[in-house]
Amino acid sequence: MLPILVGESIKELDQEFILSKGILSLDLMEQAANAFTNWFYGVFEDKEVQIYIFCGPGNNGGDGLAIARLLSENGYSINVFYLKNEKDCSNDFQANFERLPKNISATNFEKWDKKIEDGGIIIDAIFGVGLSRVLEGPISDLICELNSSLATRIAIDLPSGLPSDSVTTGQVFHSDHTVTFQFPKLSLLFPEHIQFTGDLHIIDIGIEDGFLQDFSKKAFYIRKQDISSRHRFFHRFSHKGDFGRVLFIGGAPGKLGALFLSSYAALRTGSGLVSCAPEFEDSIGIQVPYNEIMLYQVKSNTDLAEMDAIGIGSGWGNTIDPDYFLSIMIRFNKPMVIDADAINLLASNPFLLQKVPKNSILTPHVKEFERLVGKVANHAERIEKAISFAIKYEVILILKGAHTLIALPDGRQLFNSSGNQYMATAGSGDVLTGMITSFLGQGYTPENAAICGVFHHGLAGELASESKRRGMVASDIIEKIPTTFVELKIS
Ligand SMILES: NC(=O)C1=CN([C@@H]2O[C@H](COP(=O)(O)OP(=O)(O)OC[C@H]3O[C@@H](n4cnc5c(N)ncnc54)[C@H](O)[C@@H]3O)[C@@H](O)[C@H]2O)[C@@H](O)CC1
Ligand SMILES: Nc1ncnc2c1ncn2[C@@H]1O[C@H](COP(=O)(O)OP(=O)(O)O)[C@@H](O)[C@H]1O
Ligand SMILES: [K+]
């Protein structure tokens, strides 16, 4: 998995890498500039448009100058604006300033005539990870001016003004694209920063993943290549018992759909036997819309231990007796998947939290999470609370949303890369519950069930939205689950 570095470790990484390879920091800057321009050529082919590159005094500005040179050599029309008089600048800024071709006009930003041609592109190379305080004065005014322009806006490494791992109250560049080097900076994953970040592109500047591992043991980004090694593989003689017997408990009157979505998602994820127990006084006559799913009744003497996994909470309603939930947890006594109304029940009966089987997987969305831990001021605080919750209760806490966070009981934090906005549709969380429960029932460790469930769910959403876009519904995600196995070459 791709490590996410925070704080000082980002600077240390660059320095250690340069030392270990015996290269100059200027060489690494050139690699970064080349990686950026390669991305740029793929997206912006028109060489007629005017490109305005604003360069700060540090190495982010140095990147901007190197990029200006490379783009100009490739025939693009470049205008450079720098922020300070040259002598206050970093060495690599200075070196790249001297290497600027003569045909590029470089002007102090104070002399900028504030003209941006129609269809122009602004590249923000003002500040990157070296930002040390909230922006103010002329720089803040400049960014405000750039933000009001109709040009396409691209940030190098980080939108200027945004700290790499926290929130800010100050002025921040609003990007349509953020092209960040090597790994996503934590703050680019916060929902409240979407207007600053735009589309996120992580580009490789030549620092190997293995090298990054030494600089972060806590936060990681889950990508496609991390998934297949976490899967279990089945053989020619595998029988349906090997694929697991799973049970879903939920579905109060009026909310049966949620229970069926979870159950059917489990079948499509590969479960051998799927049962569902609706929360009805008499569920015998209920029509299950899928032939493959069995109806089940949870009675006081039912032996729940015969199940390999249980997913509980989808459409369960808000009238459940906490002691009933407790008895289920005690009787099952293995990690289970806890979602929706079951999470609300934990929140309103905190004594139950102590009884949740260790390594269970809780899948709250932001509102449900706040019911568990109280109000939070921002996503940074939400992440902190998710981490402490997972450690305290020895559970896996999946905080759903864009870049879903998987907080593990040992304190590690995994952020998901798959999925898109079209998944914000009713029932999509129930599908996730079904998928994670299915993997758990197939004998995956809770950690691998959580990782595979979250990644495949996002990928299924991406695949379904290719043709459905905002018209996509949760059942469309289910129909694409099998294709995710094909895409990832999982048998
Ligand atoms: N070898 C390296 O270290 C590499 C660094 N790279 C680039 O370098 C960037 C980091 O460079 P730096 O560490 O020089 O930092 P930055 O260029 O992000 O900013 C540091 C400069 O901005 C000033 N500054 C910070 N906050 C300010 C504020 N609020 N108001 C006014 N001035 C402020 C500082 O005094 C310093 O001069 C990365 O984001 C990346 O773009 C890339 O070239 C890859 C290689
Ligand atoms: N913008 C987004 N990007 C990626 N995934 C998203 C986005 N919005 C929602 N999702 C995913 O969709 C699911 C929604 O779950 P949830 O809020 O519980 O919905 P519901 O209660 O309707 O089932 C979660 O897995 C979440 O991560
Ligand atoms: K920047």
TrEMBL record:
Binding positions (AMP): K400, G401, A402, H403, T404, G429
Binding-site list for (6S)-NADPHX: 59-63, 128-134, 157, 258, 315, 365, 430
PANTHER family associated with the record: ATP-DEPENDENT (S)-NAD(P)H-HYDRATE DEHYDRATASE, ATP-DEPENDENT (S)-NAD(P)H-HYDRATE DEHYDRATASE FAMILY MEMBER
Record keyword Metal-binding present: yes
YjeF C-terminal domain sequence ranges: 223-488
Keywords linked to the UniProt accession: ATP-binding, Isomerase, Lyase, Metal-binding, Multifunctional enzyme, NAD, NADP, Nucleotide-binding, Potassium
Protein family membership: In the C-terminal section; belongs to the NnrD/CARKD family. In the N-terminal section; belongs to the NnrE/AIBP family.
Free-text cofactor note: Binds 1 potassium ion per subunit.
Cross-referenced HAMAP family: NADHX_dehydratase (MF_01965), NADHX_epimerase (MF_01966)
Reactions mediated catalytically: (6S)-NADHX + ADP = AMP + phosphate + NADH + H(+); (6R)-NADHX = (6S)-NADHX; (6R)-NADPHX = (6S)-NADPHX; (6S)-NADPHX + ADP = AMP + phosphate + NADPH + H(+)
Binding residue positions for K(+): N60, D124, S160
Subunit structure: Homotetramer.
Keyword Lyase carried by entry: yes
Function in brief: Bifunctional enzyme that catalyzes the epimerization of the S- and R-forms of NAD(P)HX and the dehydration of the S-form of NAD(P)HX at the expense of ADP, which is converted to AMP. This allows the repair of both epimers of NAD(P)HX, a damaged form of NAD(P)H that is a result of enzymatic or heat-dependent hydration.
Source organism of the structure: Belliella alkalica
EC number, UniProt record: 4.2.1.136, 5.1.99.6
Domain of life: Bacteria
Listed cofactors: K(+); Mg(2+)
Domain YjeF N-terminal stretches: 10-213
Protein name (record): Bifunctional NAD(P)H-hydrate repair enzyme
